[in-house]
Amino acid sequence: MDVKVILVEDAGYYSDEFFSGSTVKVTLRRGNEFASCDGIGIWEEEDADDYLFDEWTEYAKDGVEGYKHWQE
Q1: Domain that holds residue 17
Q2: Number of domains comprising the chain
Q3: What pTM was computed for the model?
Q4: Does residue 43 sit in helix, strand or coil?
Q5: DSSP letter string over 51-66?
Q6: Given the DSSP bridges, would you call strands 67-71 and 20-30 parallel, antiparallel or unpaired?
Q7: Tens digits of per-residue pLDDT, 21-34?
Q8: How far is CA 37 from CA 13, 17, 24, 66, in A?
């Protein structure tokens, strides 16, 4: 199944020793599953693929802050 970007929204401003600037929250959809990541500094639409979706899903299942996974 194809991974689709269904939402990119402003997530505020972030600053540390490596990055400073606006961030986004991205929500991906694959079939009836969703995965999101909050606080992305640089987002490229072509990055949305099965590998990234699975990575975000694993982070969410491991309880990593900023990642969510759900089904509808």
Answers
A1: 4-71
A2: 1
A3: 0.89
A4: coil
A5: HHHHHHHHHHHTT-TT
A6: unpaired
A7: 999 999 999 999 99
A8: 15, 21, 8, 6
